[in-house]
Structures are given as C-alpha cells and as structure tokens.
Amino acid sequence: MRKQWLLLLVVSIMLVGCSAKRHEPITAKNFVATVNILEPSLSFFTPQGEPLATWHLDKAYTGATLVEDTVILYGFGLDKAVAYSLATGEKKYELKTGTGVTNIYYNTKQAKIYIANGDTNRVHMYSLTGEPLKQIQVGNYPMSMLIHDDELFVINYKDTVLQVLDANTLIEKRSFAIDKSANGLIVPDNTNELWLGGHGEGVRPNADVKRYNLQTGELLGKLEMPLMPIEFAQHNEEIYVVSHGRNTVYAVKPDGTALWKQDVGANPFAIATVGDTIFVAGYDDHKLYAITDGVVIKELDVQKGPFKLLVRED
After folding, report:
1. From CA 282, how far away is CA 286, in angstroms rounded?
2. Around Cβ 218, how many Cβ atoms within 10 Å?
3. Torsion over CA of 65, 76, 245 and 31, rounded to 10 degrees?
4. 114 φ/ψ angles, rounded to the nearest 5 degrees
5. Is residue 225 packed enough to be buried (19+ CB in 10 Å), middle (13-18) or exposed (0-12)?
6. Within its chain, how far is the Cα of 33 from the centroid?
C-alpha cells in the first residue's frame, strides 16, 4: 500500500509539473516571430535578426495572432484556441472554438477578437478575455479578414463573394463578387481601394492583384504580380506583395506604380514589416528573410514550415 501511495504521489507531481509548464517570457518591446507548422513552434527574433527564443508547441497549431501582450494559437483540426502571455510564457485562457478555425484576427480599435471557421462557415466575435459575444453565418470557408473604418471585410476562400460586416455588431452591410480562392487583402493608405490577392483555381493559377472600389466592389484594375500573390504589407507609402508561386516580393506605390521586385526564399507565404525592414518567411527552406531597400540582407534559420509572421513594435 505504501508503494502505491508513493507511486500516486510521483505521478501527481509529474502531472502538476506538466500542467505548470510555461514558455520562455518574451520581454522585448519589438520583435518578429515565425509561426512554424511542420515543427509546431514559434521562433522569435529582434528586428535586427538576433534570436530571442523558440517556443516548442505540443499541438498541430496552424496559426497564431497577437492580442495585446497575448499570443493566441489555433489549429484547423483543434477544437480549442489557447492564449499565452508573452510576458510570462504562461497559459492565460482557452477559447472553445470547435474544429475548422482558419483565421483569428484582432483589431486594437474595436478591442475584439474575430474567429473565422471553415467548418461551420461562421465568423465569431470574442472579448479580450475570451467571452463569446456574437456570431454570423457567412459564405463558404471564410478565411482572410481585415478591419477598415469599423467594417470587417471577410474573404470566403471557397466562394465567389466578399462580405462586409459591421465590426461591432457583425451585421452584414454589403457584399460583392470576387474570384474563388482569393487570399490576402489590404486597403492602401489614403485610397478608396481594396486590393485582393489569390491562389487561382485548378490549372489556372492567379497572376495578379485585383483592385476594387472599397464601397461598391467595382473592379478598377489589375496589377500583374505572378505568380499567386497572397499576402500584403504596407510601410511609408509602399505596399509589399509576396507571390509564393515564383518566390517573389513586389514593391509598389498605392497608385500601383512598380518600384522593385526581389526573388526570395522557397515557397514564401508570409510577409510583414518592422520599421524599414521587410520580413518574408520561406516555407520550404525554413528561413526568415530580412529585406531592406529591395535587397535581402539576412537569412535566419527557423524551425520547419514557417507559415505566418507575428510582429510587435512600438
């Protein structure tokens, strides 16, 4: 009996130790991090490319989103999203999302969390403490989201419609036709335009960025950026577009004037800026690239499969 009690005590201690596991705190005010999905992990770097920490994760997370001093991890095949404090590395709370989460989006003005679910075809809104607030049925497979002027733009990836919702009530305000498999969107500063990228469908990969009127959805034109432009970043009146089909980053002005292009990485999916530096994640070569003035200045090794980027800066 004594041995059984000792064994139970050891097991209990082990369970408590596992439940109390936490990651290395991230105290840097500014950083860029890759969300790696082949080896589930987060790789943190300073804006200068110095390594800060690597969080090794125990579940098949497919994405992450920064919410103030919190990082929320989610996975399409997981039924919960988990929020961790960056300051302590400890788990803060869980969101019972159900499986099918394609994206989690946060906007500081609304101070709300928006979750797109490709299984249920719904968009959910949560408080910063994880309380469910509202939800709405949308098109087939909602994924990319963006808030502009208190409106939430939602791309339905497997559908041919983009929906515009009130960011506070989730009531639909309008919608317009788009190409199927659209992915990535941005509103260039000081314009009335919405730019959309996309993969294309079947044997016809997409080769351009489409420019729409922000209010009416009228197609205003196209910018050739082969092949498969899928994500955008913006800094100092310049817009950066990553096309993963040809491993290329394009820089243009808000009026569409081309500035430069640069080959980078192998199958890049994500792009972001920190100050004047552009960061690009190479999914197939497991590297993070830093670009300044159109030139690759650093190549940083990360864990396998960097799929998304997280950025925090003052």
Report:
1. 6
2. 10
3. 20
4. -115, 130
5. buried
6. 11
- Rounded to an integer, what distance in angstroms lies between the CA atom of residue 309 and that of residue 283? 11
CATH 2.40.128.630, the chain: domain bounds: 63-178
What's the pTM value of the predicted model, to 2 decimals?
Answer: 0.92
Strand order in the sheet with 41-45: 51-56, 41-45, 31-36, 306-312
User: Which token pair is 177?
Assistant: 């036709």
Name the phi and psi angles at 178, rounded to 5.
-140, 175
CATH 2.40.10.480 domain locations along the chain: 184-263
From CA 108, how far away is CA 112, in angstroms rounded? 7
Domain 63-178 indexed as CATH 2.60.120.200: no
Q: Write out the chain's pLDDT in tens, 314 residues.
A: 444 444 333 433 343 344 446 999 999 999 999 999 999 999 999 999 999 999 999 999 999 999 999 999 999 999 999 999 999 999 999 999 999 999 999 999 989 999 999 999 999 999 998 999 999 999 999 999 999 999 999 999 999 999 999 999 999 999 999 999 999 999 999 999 999 999 998 778 999 999 999 999 999 999 999 999 999 999 999 999 999 999 999 999 999 999 999 999 999 999 999 999 999 999 999 999 999 999 999 999 999 999 999 999 98
270 within 8 A of 306, measured Cβ to Cβ: yes
Under 8 Å between Cβ of 100 and 115: no
What tokens appear for 267 in the block? Answer: 């199958």
In CATH, what number does 184-263 get? Answer: 2.40.10.480
How far is Cα 231 from Cα 104, in angstroms, rounded to an integer? 16
Q: Which ranges in the chain belong to alpha helices (H)?
A: 2-19
Beta bridge partners of 74: 63
